Amino acid sequence: MKREKRHSCIEENSASPVNLPTIKFTKLFINGEFVDSVSGKTFETIDPRTGEVITRVAEGDKEDVDLAVKAARKAFDDGPWPRMSGAERGRIMMKYADIIDEHIDELAALDAIDAGKLFSWGKAVDIPTVARLLRYYAGAADKIHGEVLKMSRELHGYTLREPIGVAGHIIPWNFPSSMFFMMSAPALAAGCTMIVKPAEQTPLSALFYGHLAKQAGMPDGVINVITGYGPTAGAAIASHMDIDKVCFTGSTEVGRKIMQAAATSNLKQVSLELGGKSPLLIFDDADVDKAADLALLGILYNKANMFPLCDQLNDEFRLKCRGEICVASSRVFVQEGIYDEFVKKLKEKAKDWVVGDPFDPRSRLGPQVDKQQFDKILSYIEHGKREGASLLTGGKPVGKKGYFIEPTVFTDVKEDMMIATDEIFGPVMSLMKFKTIDEAIKKANNTKYGLAAGIVTKNLDVANTVSRSIRAGTIWINCYFAFDQDCSYGGYKMSGFGRHLGIEALHKFLQVKSVVTPIYNSPWL
After folding, report:
1. 80-134, pLDDT tens digit by residue?
2. Which GO terms of the molecular function aspect are on file (predicted)?
3. Residue 433 CB contacts under 8 Å (≥ 6 apart), including other chains
4. Which of 52, 178, 288, 522 is the most buried (most CB within 10 A)?
5. Mind telling me the catalytic residues?
């Protein structure tokens, strides 16, 4: 009898092939210095590989946020950063990027031990992308222009784009390095100062970036890092009367609270990137083998080593192995003509994924970030089984310690099941079938979210029709996670508003001022 292939798991107690990072910074970073919290409290940060404590980190609260805002406010109102030429700001940002490049291994290791991200992928992709993002916005810093207006009467008018002021950045745990700079890099280029609050699950790399900013010559008070919890430090940022803009990436539920706090305080501007339940539509003419690879990439990317997959795909796909898990293609719709073949292929490929230590190069899938997320994902898997979905593959924890879960695929999923409606934020795919293009569009839009979508087809007419019909901020055709620093992304509907990346991200940290003077005795208007 042929033995069924199971998910592989690297031996739990095998030694990591690299030296684990030394934890150098655990205090708050305020006004260019590392300081204890006012209360003296600390909290544990946990290694998701083992469930063990890495270290204790300063627990910031309202009083600490007040100190950080005071430093950022002084740096903006009286300091050199917003008064520098854009070229000078860009020069310091370029140096910041160079210093990050010098610490790639250490930063990738911090995100691996703190967030469970694969070390090899962090070294090759995540941290180098951070440096490139800084350089992109450094290049934009001296290209911030207003425009001259053609007025309708004897007036001369022009606009200025000015930095919005002090920004508060509340970043998630899934991409601690990338999200730090998706928010801070355009704000720096615009001339803003800021307070960054990393997720309580992943504080370590953010504190290191504060240290490196100081080394790069960033003036004191421009970047401040407050570690702590959302309901305390995060809430203090959202409601602070001296913060001019708040940016948040996370759940829709917390996004509502951020908006409420902003509205009841000083009506600060808000940018939100929230939940997603993104669809991937695979049509009958698709290459089934590549479509299965894309479907797995779409749901497993963030904790996955994509090098083996990128080697299997052609150059076009290889260049596009980039992304954020908030846009995970957790709902996969396959046209009925290839559905059975696709299911067989997906099951075969999913079981090739090796789950294990993010420092081990053999691992293709690392752990979930913490026990709460681990338990939440397993709870959704049980919901799916109780509601009548069929477990095609996966569905179980891996190993006796840490927060590892098998890649999980459900078939026989109905659109009103919890696994098809709720954002699970884990390696759980809902696989469904459709007949016609109109049905596919209707199913894709049957969600309160609208962050992204994927389309796999060789028919340009189908691609154009479907891409213009899905209500989502980003549509990928025959690729997934095709991010680029010059291409903005963000949500429709309850996935939020405001954009990361591209020039749109720079503009959200600028406000437009109109300046008008009268014209006397001009021969023309």
Report:
1. 999 999 999 999 999 999 999 999 999 999 999 999 999 999 999 999 999 999 9
2. aldehyde dehydrogenase (NAD+) activity
3. 333, 334, 335, 336, 339
4. 178
5. 273
Angle between helices 460-469 and 437-444 (to 10 degrees): 30
Mean per-residue pLDDT, 45-58: 96
Separation CA 188–CA 43 (nearest Å):
29
Q: What is the pLDDT of residues 479-509, one digit of tens each?
A: 999 999 999 999 999 999 999 999 999 999 9
Read off the DSSP letter of residue 230.
Answer: I
Residue where the block lists tokens 């010059």: 486
Q: Comparing C-alpha atoms, which of 237, 174, 249, 167 is closest to residue 205?
A: 174
**Quick check: 93 and 212 in contact, CB under 8 A?**
no
Measuring CA to CA, which residue among 438, 447, 442, 425 is closest to residue 493? 447
pTM above 0.90, yes or no: yes
Q: Most distant CA pair in the chain: distance in Å? A: 97
List b or e across 19-28, with b for residues whose CB sees 16 or more CB atoms inside 10 angstroms: eebebebbbb
Separation of alpha carbons 168 and 68, rounded Å:
10
Q: Are 176 and 224 in contact (CB under 8 A)?
A: no
CB neighbourhood size of 382 (10 A): 10
Contact at 8 Å (CB) between 152 and 524? no
* Measured CA distances, 289 to 43, 284, 334, 342, 496 (Å): 46, 12, 13, 8, 34
Q: Are 497 and 508 in contact (CB under 8 A)?
A: no
Q: Are the C-beta atoms of 501 and 484 separated by less than 8 Å?
A: yes
d(CA 428, CA 420): 10
How far from each other are the two terminal CA atoms of the chain, in whole angstroms? 89
Where are the extended beta strands (E) located within 180-278? Answer: 193-197, 223-225, 245-249, 269-273
Length of the chain: 525
Name which of 276-280, 325-329, 419-423 the model is least confident about: 325-329
Q: Strand pairing of 223-225 and 193-197?
A: parallel
Q: Which residues contact 381 (CB under 8 A, 6 or more apart)?
A: 391, 395, 408, 419, 428
Q: Could you tell me the two tokens for 7?
A: 């998910």
Q: Which amino acid is at 11?
A: E
What is the rounded CA–CA span in Å between residue 389 and residue 92? 54
**8 Å CB contact between 30 and 58:** no
Listed in sequence order, the residues at least 6 apart from 264 whose beta carbon sits closer than 8 Å to its beta carbon are 239
Q: What angle do CA 432, 450, 437 make, to 5 degrees?
A: 45
> Which strand (E) or helix (H) includes residue 406?
none
DSSP state of 371: H
Helices (H), 265-417: 288-300, 307-312, 315-318, 339-350, 371-386
d(CA 242, CA 24): 31
